[in-house]
Specification:
The complex is a heterodimer of chains A (about 120) and B (about 110).
Chain A lengths: L3 E4 L2 E4 L5 E7 L6 E7 L5 E8 L5 E2 L8 E7 L2 E6 L8 E8 L10 E2 L3 E5 L1
Parallel strand pairs in A: 2-11
Antiparallel strand pairs in A: 1-3, 3-8, 4-5, 4-9, 5-6, 7-8, 9-10, 9-11
Chain B lengths: L3 E4 L2 E5 L4 E7 L5 E7 L6 E6 L5 E4 L2 E5 L5 E6 L8 E8 L7 E2 L3 E6 L1
Parallel strand pairs in B: 2-11
Antiparallel strand pairs in B: 1-3, 3-8, 4-5, 4-9, 6-7, 7-8, 9-10, 9-11
The chains are: A mainly beta (about 120), B mainly beta (about 110).
């Protein structure tokens, strides 16, 4: 099956610093990746859709200057939380869908990254 | 915009009892997917339903897609402790390729 690797799995940072989270599709190409935020015992909140070679599409209420998304290749998308504050502490998960004719609509999720901002 | 409502939010069952979670969409769906997220883990794809009235089974799990393609259910027969986790439905409508996730139902199975 398709594998999506997300790194780091856990990160603790000081308030005001920036944190980069990587999402890689290991054995397939993904022109589209999604970034979610999940609060404890709650659902997946879609933050943005990351498109290879173009700007990300952000959901309403998500600050694009706060959460920078880059999808520079068909297998890698990154989310950078800039000037992180304690309220940004959360579980961030990415997902990817196969490109083109191999796409069945199924989403493959990364393992998630738990961010703690002190 | 499209909304997907999922109930119940939590369900406690004794091992061996059945379990059902329901999803309802405000719009007609082109398809619906189901995912399972174990505690501390990430969502894993279970199945996708596309046809009106479709029923699919995976061992003790039965998935249904309503005739109007606006609702779906997941039923687990004779739950086991390994079934513990949160089950999410995710529906797509129109030409959108972005699924909208329900809130999820957390299943707790007591041995």
């Amino acid at each position: 099956g398709a594998v999506v690797s997300q790194h780091p799995s856990r990160v603790i940072c000081k308030s005001g610093t920036s944190v980069k989270i990587e999402c890689r599709s290991l054995d397939f190409q993904a022109t589209t990746m999604f970034w979610y935020r999940q609060f404890p015992k709650q659902s997946l909140m879609l933050m943005a859709t990351s498109n290879e070679g173009s700007k990300a599409t952000y959901e309403q209420g998500v600050e694009k200057d706060k959460f920078l998304i880059n999808h520079a290749s068909l297998t890698l998308s990154t989310l950078t939380v800039t000037s992180a504050h304690p309220e940004d502490s959360s579980f961030y998960i990415c997902s990817a869908r196969r490109s083109g004719g191999e796409n069945t609509g199924e989403l493959f999720f990364g393992e998630g990254s738990r961010l703690t901002v002190l | 915009g499209q909304q997907v409502m999922q109930i119940p939010q939590y369900q406690h069952v004794q091992e061996g009892e059945d379990f059902t979670t329901y999803c309802n969409s405000s719009t007609t769906l082109s398809n619906i997917q189901w995912y399972k997220q174990r505690p501390g883990g990430h969502p894993v794809f279970l199945i996708q339903l596309v046809k009106s009235g479709e029923v699919k089974k995976q061992k003790r799990l039965t998935f249904q897609f309503g005739e109007a393609k606006k609702n779906s259910s997941l039923h687990i027969t004779a739950t086991q402790t390994t079934d513990v986790g949160t089950y999410f439905c995710a529906g797509r409508s129109g030409g959108s390729y972005i699924p909208t996730f329900g809130r999820g139902t957390s299943l707790i199975v007591h041995p």
